[in-house]
């Protein structure tokens, strides 16, 4: 058995490589349909989103912070915030929330991100995963405006907000038992 830490940039490439790991394949550079019509990474991202294969989109995770609560936690369904963590920091006067790209897309689609913050959240996600976000939220346009700012948390030290991606090579009978 072997476990390797996957060093990544929390980007579209992480999502496609998570999808291809079971076939022991990996992309080094994100490819586009216009350059590679069959088997492009852009095509794979859209295929995964169209067929609701959500797990590759769960590897890219983002912590977003604002001066106020920007998620409607009162009416949210527990399944919509599975694996999410959040904290209110009274000293800084801020609220931070961490979930996967798939989690963020779900929260936006279902209206749990307050309207005046949606644009700012989308803009943070677009910086890292523009192609995956476009596949998951095709209805979101290019020029999304926001009335209130959000920002990504830098240099996180809270253990609840830190996670890693591992690539494991294990015998099939052990993988099936997991």
UniProtKB/TrEMBL annotation:
SUPFAM superfamilies: Thymidylate synthase-complementing protein Thy1. This is Thymidylate synthase. It comes from Pseudorhizobium pelagicum. GO terms for biological process: dTMP biosynthetic process. It comes from the Bacteria. GO terms for molecular function: flavin adenine dinucleotide binding; thymidylate synthase (FAD) activity. InterPro entries: Thymidylate_synthase_ThyX, Thymidylate_synthase_ThyX_sf.
């Amino acid at each position: 058995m072997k476990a390797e830490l996957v060093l990544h940039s929390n980007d579209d490439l992480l999502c496609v490589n998570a999808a291809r790991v079971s076939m022991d394949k990996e992309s080094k550079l994100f490819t586009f349909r216009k350059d590679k019509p069959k088997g492009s990474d852009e095509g794979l991202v859209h295929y995964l989103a169209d067929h609701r294969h959500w797990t590759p989109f769960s590897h890219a995770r983002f912590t977003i912070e604002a001066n106020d609560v920007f998620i409607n936690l009162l009416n949210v369904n527990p399944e919509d915030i599975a694996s999410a963590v959040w904290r209110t920091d009274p000293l800084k006067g801020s609220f931070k929330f961490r979930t996967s790209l798939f989690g963020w897309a779900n929260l936006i689609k279902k209206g749990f991100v307050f309207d005046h913050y949606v644009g700012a959240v989308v803009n943070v996600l677009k910086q890292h995963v523009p192609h995956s976000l476009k596949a998951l939220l095709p209805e979101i346009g290019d020029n999304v405006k926001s009335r209130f700012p959000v920002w990504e948390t830098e240099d996180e030290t809270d253990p609840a907000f830190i996670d890693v991606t591992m690539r494991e090579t294990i015998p099939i009978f052990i993988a099936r038992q997991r």
